[in-house]
Amino acid sequence: MATILDTLKKGTEYLLKHEVDDARLNMEHLIAHVLKIDRMQLYLNFDRPLEEDALESLRHLTKRRSRGEPLQHLLGTVEFCGREFKTDGRALVPRPETEELTAVLASMKWPENVSILDMGCGSGVIGLSLAKALDEQEPTVVLADLSPEALSLARDNAAGLGIDDRVAFVESDLFSAVDDRFDLVVANLPYIPRTEDTSLSREVQRDPPVALYGGETGTEIIEEFLRQAESHLVAGGMTALEFGIGQAGKLRLLAEDLGFENVGIRSDLSGVERFLFASKAGENC
Question: Under DSSP, is residue 277 helix (H, G, I), strand (E, B) or coil?
Answer without folding.
Answer: strand
